[in-house]
Design goal:
By secondary structure, the protein is an alpha+beta fold. It has 10 helices and 11 strands. The protein has a 3-stranded mixed β-sheet with strand order 3-5-4. Strands 6-7-8 form a 3-stranded antiparallel β-sheet, with no helix packed on it. The protein has a 3-stranded antiparallel β-sheet with strand order 9-10-11, with helices on one face. The radius of gyration is 23 Å and the shape is globular.
């Protein structure tokens, strides 16, 4: 009974900590435990970590200035036009873009090189600006809090049921099983919420494209390019078929690319039909001389082979593995549940099994699968 009361009190305290804030993108009133000031503080704190994680800021003043110009053009037609945004090009060939709360938007040089024109780049930046204006981080934070409370409640319930069926040992086993089920349910709940956030960010990005004078169809054309690039990598890097690489829709943090294309195309039909600017020459001029592909100073991946001339290291991964390089590690997976990590980690103590289960899987395995797109 005391455990049940404690769980109820935790829920009550979580609800009491919420404040009512109007969502800038939708205009709706939302109850959230993160204020805009909290989000800005969180972004400032996480910005240096993001730079370290993704190779740092790319040292190319022309490309950086170009991305800032396009990003601010999009930001200036958003609901947070008066807020300062920080747009950063990251020094990695991994095709990715993301945003932190408080207006921190990141795009990799690999993704910029994949775009076909300025409008497509603007669509990517608009999608990430949409995550900020819609306060998706605050929503995810609150959903995670609810999910954790639900997991605790499931664990307590399992312990009570196990105790009734099998005494103290039954309570222990029941609590473990309940906790595992609760955690799995919480993860699925939060990840499912994120899929809708991705769709909403697509819609907001299309809105901003039209307002800024770009062709709104650029969102759909880039998503189609992204899908084609993923299919090409699957065929050429030993990842198997496209379907085999997915972890399953229920746990995917982003919707499948074909679904996003279909919904983006549908959304463009009513978005400012007079706006049609794409500006491919401006993009090509900004990319002229930029590094394409992996930086040899960080090592080079060729199929299943990795070579690092500076460190004089080379190895061959098992057949069927896809490798991905970063400044911290080389990770790989075969799309069938087998993973590998080469990280030269220092100061690691304990047994090998414990390190694999508690260390590198948690920190690195999510980079391997293409579902993180």
């Amino acid at each position: 009974m005391r455990q049940s009361l404690a769980a109820a009190l935790a829920v009550a305290l979580a609800l009491a900590a919420c404040t009512q804030v109007r969502n800038p993108a939708t205009g709706e009133l939302q109850y959230t435990s993160l204020t805009p000031a909290d989000e800005a503080k969180l972004g400032r704190e996480e910005h240096p970590k993001a730079l370290r994680e993704f190779g740092g800021k790319y040292d190319n003043a022309r490309l950086q200035a170009y991305v800032e110009k396009v990003g601010n053009r999009i930001k200036n037609v958003s609901e947070l036009s008066g807020q300062t945004f920080t747009f950063t090009v990251l020094d990695t060939d991994v095709v990715n873009a993301f945003a932190l709360p408080g207006g921190y938007v990141y795009v990799t040089r690999g993704l910029v090189a994949l775009t076909n024109n300025e409008a497509e780049l603007a669509g990517v930046l608009g999608h990430e600006v949409g995550h900020v204006t819609a306060r998706h981080t605050a929503q995810r934070y609150d959903q995670a809090q609810v999910g954790q409370i639900g997991a605790v409640a499931a664990q307590l319930g399992g312990a009570v049921l196990g105790g009734l069926l099998g005494g103290s040992e039954g309570a222990r086993l029941g609590g473990e099983a309940g906790g595992q089920l609760g955690s799995t349910g919480a993860e699925a709940y939060v990840q499912g919420y994120s899929r809708e956030q991705e769709f909403e960010a697509d819609q907001l990005g299309i809105r901003y494209l039209g307002r800024a004078g770009y062709d709104p169809n650029a969102m759909a054309t880039f998503l189609a390019t992204l899908g084609a690039d993923d299919a090409y990598r699957q065929r050429t890097q030993g990842g198997g078929t496209d379907e085999a690489s997915y972890l399953g829709d229920w746990f995917r943090s982003h919707p499948r690319t074909p679904d996003r294309v279909a919904r983006a195309v549908e959304a463009t039909s009513g978005e400012l039909p007079g706006a049609r600017e794409t500006d491919r020459p401006a993009l090509l001029a900004a990319l002229d001389g930029a590094l394409y592909g992996e930086d040899p100073a960080q090592g080079v991946i060729d199929g299943t082979s990795f070579r690092h001339p500076g460190l004089r290291i080379a190895f061959e991964a098992p057949t069927g593995f896809r490798l991905q390089n970063s400044p911290e590690a080389v990770v790989g997976g075969d799309g069938r549940g087998r993973f590998m990590l080469f990280d030269m980690a220092s100061g690691v103590r304990g047994d090998l099994r414990g390190y694999l289960q508690q260390g590198w899987v948690r920190n690195h395995a999510c980079r391997i699968c293409s579902s993180c797109r």
